[in-house]
């Protein structure tokens, strides 16, 4: 891998999900955590320490033996009783391999989540979490508590350690885990502050091993990036495929459309990285033929069992041909309904699939979440496909591959091939919608005159991730202040850059600026095909004045991107310092989990430069149905299920979400800039 790269390259969006909006508005005033908040925040960090070991904090010991059974302590006791009965019948044991894409384990995870969610107060929640921490499968516990913190109205704003620090095994190769463990065996000072700079172990990417899966190893710096994989994990925890209905209000966030757009943007971002590495289009596959692209993750579970390996030219076992036939049936049903243009729901109502807003139905239909109109008919396409091509189900013991976890899916090249196939339903639906009219594209009286960019530079740098949870530490909480082990790994980054856009306006008022980035094209009509590979980098509301408007925007202010997370040890120290009466703990969105890594804004460049294209469009302000930020506090919450995350009411990906009529598409309120 080239380690010194300076690229006049245009980068891509800080959002693999152009609709997954973190709150990045300026905050007036500063909020500080009180003692009660700090007690709860401290609790979350302590129960997630050394997740595979017994709790080390004596204050929790009294609650490890039993859960709360008092009916008055729950909001919906019927759901809790269902958990009690299911648990008594047998849950996945501690230390066993867990995957959220195993139907039985998913059911158990959901019941554990509702058990937490229905607690009537924090005291009940606290005691039940401690019990579950000691008695429930570790992977299941992490999923359930993360979902509870993200979705319970009373837990908004609490910060959990980064998932790659809770569970380093899913983010760092086995050689790194072994190096850390062995180092501790012969160096007792290893990990403590007194050992200084020597608490570092170097980590490699899979590509550095003598394994090639048809050139895909060139992209390991991107596909195995801990920030990228954490981003996808958090999106899937905010919008789990098995959670929905009015209870959680995920439909308010245009969930079906959001899902489709998130995957479209992820595939577009991956495509741009492929192009920079001269790898050509994304490989296609057919259910009736072997999968050309194998994958060896080099990951191992906590108990030492390696992730299942999919060999090159992988063929589905004959025992699972029936599942391949299921996939074909599901796809046929979805395509037929889209082509037909309507569907009768179970209540007899007719759904018109020629309306733009019906993308919501199509998205839910494909991903078979609880908000889908008929998931029994359209089937669990995503879940079945992952199980079929994971391959681990054919063994006596469940043996998951990287494809079977939110945390590791994006490491596998087949992930992109699979979802690129699923997106054909999205494009099929959009193909039946009429192109935007001139009136829908043009913003009368507004003209973008020019856009000027700084030089765009990308480079590789070393980054330290806290992997202290790999090492068992039997000590009091205070000693966690002094103990941290770091995995040092080269990763891609970019120099912050700005652009200056001059806009002339004949009116004073609000407008919305959208910024996309994509591959350079040499014939304007190539955009019809390439538009699906443009990634939305930024979106913001602007108050235009009559005459010239000069907008200067820095990449650090882009709407979708977030900076690196603070490490577990550092955050825990801040929490405990404030808890003990020291420096106050600020409540803000600096540790937000709901944004795309700023580092991955630009694809890797080349020493000679790599040309790409920015696209700008200014549109009138179409107010959303619910005013942005009106139903949640954006200073410390991501607003999942609030229905008020979005700036305006235009479709995600506008205007690239429909076919283009080139006879009038390029209006004065648009601007293409080669970079």
TrEMBL record:
Domain called Hemocyanin C-terminal: residue spans: 435-675
Q: Which domain of life is it from?
A: Eukaryota
Family annotation (Gene3D superfamilies): Di-copper center containing domain from catechol oxidase, Hemocyanin, C-terminal domain, Hemocyanin, N-terminal domain
Single annotated GO MF: nutrient reservoir activity
Where does the record place the Hemocyanin middle domain? 162-426
The UniProt entry, under Pfam families, shows: Hemocyanin_C, Hemocyanin_M, Hemocyanin_N
Tell whether Disulfide bond is among the UniProt keywords.
no
| Listed GO biological process terms | energy homeostasis
Domain Hemocyanin N-terminal per the UniProt entry, residue ranges: 37-156
InterPro entries linked to this entry: Di-copper_centre_dom_sf, Hemocyanin/hexamerin, Hemocyanin/hexamerin_mid_dom, Hemocyanin_C, Hemocyanin_C_sf, Hemocyanin_N, Hemocyanin_N_sf, Ig_E-set
Task: Recite the UniProt keywords alphabetically.
Answer: Storage protein
GO cellular component terms given for this protein: extracellular space
Q: What is this protein called?
A: Hexamerin A
Which species is this record about? Anopheles arabiensis (Mosquito)
């Amino acid at each position: 891998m080239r380690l010194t790269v300076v690229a006049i390259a245009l980068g891509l969006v800080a959002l693999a999900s152009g609709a997954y909006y973190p709150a990045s508005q300026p905050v007036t005033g500063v909020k500080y955590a009180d003692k009660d908040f700090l007690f709860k925040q401290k609790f979350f960090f302590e129960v997630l320490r050394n997740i595979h070991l017994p709790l080390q904090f004596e204050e929790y010991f009294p609650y490890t033996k039993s859960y709360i059974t008092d009916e008055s302590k729950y909001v919906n006791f019927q759901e809790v009783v269902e958990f009690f009965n299911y648990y008594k019948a047998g849950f996945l044991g501690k230390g066993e391999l867990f995957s959220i894409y195993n139907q039985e384990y998913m059911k158990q995870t959901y019941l554990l989540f509702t058990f937490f969610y229905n607690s009537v107060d924090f005291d009940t929640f606290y005691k039940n979490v401690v019990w579950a921490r000691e008695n429930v499968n570790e992977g299941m516990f992490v999923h359930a508590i993360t979902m509870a913190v993200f979705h319970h109205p009373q837990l908004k704003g609490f910060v959990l350690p980064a998932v790659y620090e809770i569970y380093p095994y899913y983010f760092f190769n086995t050689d790194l885990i072994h190096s850390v463990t062995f180092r501790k065996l012969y160096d007792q000072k290893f990990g403590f502050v007194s050992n200084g700079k020597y608490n570092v172990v170097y980590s490699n990417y899979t590509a550095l091993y003598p394994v090639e899966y048809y050139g895909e190893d060139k992209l390991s710096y991107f596909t195995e990036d801990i920030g990228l994989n954490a981003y996808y994990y958090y999106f899937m925890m905010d919008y789990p495929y098995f959670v929905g209905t009015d209870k959680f209000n995920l439909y308010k966030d245009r969930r079906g459309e959001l899902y489709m757009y998130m995957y479209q943007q992820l595939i577009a971002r991956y495509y741009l990285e492929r192009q920079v590495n001269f790898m050509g289009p994304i490989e296609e596959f057919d259910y009736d033929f072997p999968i050309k692209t194998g994958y060896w993750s080099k990951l191992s579970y906590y108990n030492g069992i390696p992730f299942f390996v999919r060999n090159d030219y992988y063929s589905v076992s004959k025992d699972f041909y029936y599942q391949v036939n299921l996939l074909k049936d599901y796809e046929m049903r979805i395509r037929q309904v889209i082509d037909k243009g309507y569907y009768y729901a179970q209540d007899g109502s007719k759904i018109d699939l020629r309306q733009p807003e019906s993308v919501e139905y199509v998205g839910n239909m494909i991903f078979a979440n609880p908000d889908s109109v008929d998931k029994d008919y359209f089937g669990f396409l995503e879940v079945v496909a992952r199980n079929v091509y994971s391959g681990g189900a054919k063994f006596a013991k469940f043996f998951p591959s990287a494809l079977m976890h939110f945390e590791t899916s994006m490491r596998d090249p087949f992930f992109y091939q699979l979802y690129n196939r699923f997106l054909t339903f999205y494009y099929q639906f959009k193909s039946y919608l009429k192109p935007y009219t001139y009136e829908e594209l043009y913003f009368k009286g507004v003209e973008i005159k020019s856009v000027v960019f700084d030089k765009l530079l990308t480079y590789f740098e070393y980054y330290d991730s806290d992997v202290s949870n790999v090492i068992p530490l039997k000590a009091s909480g205070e000693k966690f202040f002094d103990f941290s082990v770091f995995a040092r790994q080269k990763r891609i980054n970019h120099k912050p850059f700005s652009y200056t856009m001059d806009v002339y306006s004949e009116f004073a008022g609000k407008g919305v600026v959208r910024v996309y980035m994509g591959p350079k094209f040499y014939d304007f009509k190539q955009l019809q095909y390439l538009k699906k590979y443009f990634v939305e980098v930024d979106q913001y509301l602007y108050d235009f004045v009559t005459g010239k408007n000069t907008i200067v925007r820095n990449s650090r202010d882009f709407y979708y991107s977030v900076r690196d997370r603070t490490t577990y040890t550092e955050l825990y120290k801040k929490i405990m310092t404030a808890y003990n009466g020291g420096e106050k703990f600020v409540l803000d969105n600096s540790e937000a989990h709901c944004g795309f890594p700023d580092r991955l804004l630009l694809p890797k460049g080349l020493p000679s430069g790599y040309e790409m294209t920015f696209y700008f469009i200014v549109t009138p302000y179409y107010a959303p149905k619910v005013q942005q930020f009106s139903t949640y506090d954006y200073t410390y919450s991501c607003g999942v299920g609030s229905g008020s995350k979005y700036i305006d009411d235009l479709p995600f990906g506008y205007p690239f979400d429909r076919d283009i009529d080139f006879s009038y598409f390029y209006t004065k309120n648009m601007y293409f800039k080669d970079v």
